[in-house]
Write a structure and sequence with these properties.
alpha+beta; 2 domains; 7-stranded mixed beta sheet; 4-stranded antiparallel beta sheet; 9 helices; 11 strands
């Protein structure tokens, strides 16, 4: 029996307010045999939803196409408003190697899905991270700069010819960014103030592109309904820049402005190791080992009897 190849797919769609629409798109994504939908996380302020699924490569191709088709039916960026930057109805779609599959297989999967999305749905496709064909397109932020509203002008520049698909935006769905990457953690810290300038200043201090932490991307976001602001972060390699380090730097920067941290959140799923690292740091544990976690010890004991 061949080993089961498990790939994680984490599409981000530009809809986080209409629950019925999110559920329809999620149902389409998770309806393909061989694909298991693990999580659906929506944020109304961002007007964005992160879906997480796992499956074998061939099944994920079908699931991806089903998700894009459903998003195309339900999302129109011409009327979309939200705090999170976005380029497309399906804004970004990364593939992550999990088990019995390497990064190059995920690269091939991303390029295969990109070709199919462009061919079948007439949506411009950019490849990013490990799947990028152009080194200038490795960074998602560079591709998304200008967002949907600036996309038509961007695509007229020969330097921004899509990797697949037409040289003009899809009227309602914009463009999409597909790639392969290591596990990423979407981590947000909420601040006890409504001053967006403070959140933006802290984000600038934290993110790598402005001289902050190496594997952190950050934006200042307005949470108007809560009368708060947020430092919204992507930790692109939690093993090298852990959650606790990003949290502590945000907290220290907030203190400069006399602003408290009122909470933090993980969007979607998170590797257990990232949480254990944070527990180890904040609790100042001595000689703590993963084998001390009750659930892990029980699982290994049961597996040894199987």
């Amino acid at each position: 029996m061949r080993p089961l190849k498990i790939v994680e797919a984490v599409p981000n769609i530009s809809e986080g307010r209409r629950e019925n629409v999110v559920q329809e798109i999620a149902a389409a994504f998770g309806s393909v045999p061989g694909v298991v939908l693990l999580d659906v996380s929506s944020d109304a302020s961002h007007n964005r939803t992160v879906l997480t699924a796992v499956g074998e490569p061939d099944a994920l191709v079908d699931a991806a196409l089903a998700l894009y088709a459903s998003a195309l039916d339900h999302i129109d960026l011409r009327t979309h408003r939200g705090e999170h930057p976005r380029l497309g109805a399906v804004d970004v779609f990364p593939f992550v190697p999990i088990e019995n599959v390497d990064m190059q297989e995920c690269v091939a999967l991303a390029r295969r899905v990109g070709h199919e999305v462009a061919t079948r749905l007439n949506i411009p496709v950019f490849l990013y991270e490990e799947a990028a064909l152009d080194p200038a397109r490795t960074d998602l932020a560079a591709i998304r700069k200008g967002e949907f509203e600036g996309l038509a002008a961007k695509l007229r520049d020969p330097a921004w010819k899509p990797d697949f698909g037409p040289k003009a935006p899809h009227p309602s769905a914009g463009a999409t960014v597909i790639g392969a990457r290591v596990p990423l953690i979407a981590f947000n810290v909420n601040l006890g103030t409504d001053r967006l300038d403070v959140a933006k200043a802290i984000a600038k201090s934290v993110r790598h592109s402005s001289g902050g932490l190496r594997f952190v991307k950050a934006l200042g976001i307005d949470l108007a309904e809560k009368k708060q602001v947020q430092v919204s972060m992507n930790l692109t390699d939690y093993r090298k820049t852990p959650i606790f380090r990003a949290f502590e730097l945000v907290r220290l920067e907030a203190e400069r402005y006399g602003v408290p941290v009122v909470g933090s959140e993980v969007v979607g799923l998170v590797p257990a190791a990232a949480l254990f690292d944070s527990a180890d740091h904040f609790l100042r544990l001595i000689d703590f080992e993963r084998e001390q976690v009750l659930e892990d010890r029980v699982r290994k004991a049961l597996e040894s009897r199987a």
